[in-house]
Amino acid sequence: MINSTWIIILGLLVGLDTFAQSQSIKVDSSINKYFVDKTEYTQITITYSNTTSDYYILWLDSQVDSLMTNDEKVRNYYYVRKGDFTLADLIHEHLINEIPTRIYLTFYKILEPTNQFTFIFLSTDKNMEIEKVLSELRNQIVLIKSSDTNRLPTISHLEKLNYKGEFISIPVETLKFHKNK
């Protein structure tokens, strides 16, 4: 009887610990369809809620690989040249107020403690394969705890180009999807 009680208690503690860890970032998603006049829209909404006291950084990266470490993801997005610049170069420039937010190039969002951010993806493509789009989005949305890597610029530097909105709407047709999926 005592052994089975300990097994139950241990099971409950492991379950509670797993639940607590999964509550650090809460991810909610929904898919809705609606019409504007005769045009049907599919809306995919993904909301990230930070329920911790830690800072997280979110961005979209079409070059990310699921096998990459956090440091490799940061290096790829912030320190690899995209044309004449790296994102890290722009963050440290003095003319940063003139730089527009561009998906895959300069977009990132600091997810502050107790805040949330929402991606809204819209499409009018009636043949869109929603599961494939969701799978691609899961791969492209990068979420990194700022303290989990020493490669990120500091939060004070990141604030300079941080996307200021609480949500962003992106047409699905403008996203870069891998062709082999």
Distance between the termini: 52 Å
Q: What is the typical, i.e. mean, pLDDT?
A: 84
Q: Mind telling me the C-alpha Rg?
A: 19 Å
* Residue windows where pLDDT falls under 50 for at least 5 positions: 2-22
For the biggest β-sheet, the strand order reads: 1-2-5-7
Task: Count helical runs.
Answer: 5
Could you characterize the architecture of this molecule?
It is a single chain. 29% of the residues lie in helices and 28% in strands. By secondary structure, it is of the alpha+beta class. The protein has one domain (25-174). The strands form two sheets. Strands 1-2-5-7 form a four-stranded mixed sheet, with no helix packed on it. The chain has a three-stranded antiparallel sheet with strand order 4-3-6. A hairpin with a 2-residue loop joins strand 1 and strand 2 (39-50).
Labels describing this entry:
single chain, 181 residues, alpha+beta, four-stranded mixed sheet, three-stranded antiparallel sheet, disordered N terminus
In summary, what is this structure?
This protein has five helices and seven strands; from the N terminus they run αβββααββαβαβ.
Please render the helix and strand layout as text:
Blueprint: H1 2-22, E1 25-36, E2 39-50, E3 56-60, H2 70-79, H3 87-92, E4 109-111, E5 116-123, H4 130-140, E6 141-145, H5 155-158, E7 167-171
Parallel strand pairs: 5-7
Antiparallel strand pairs: 1-2, 2-5, 3-4, 3-6
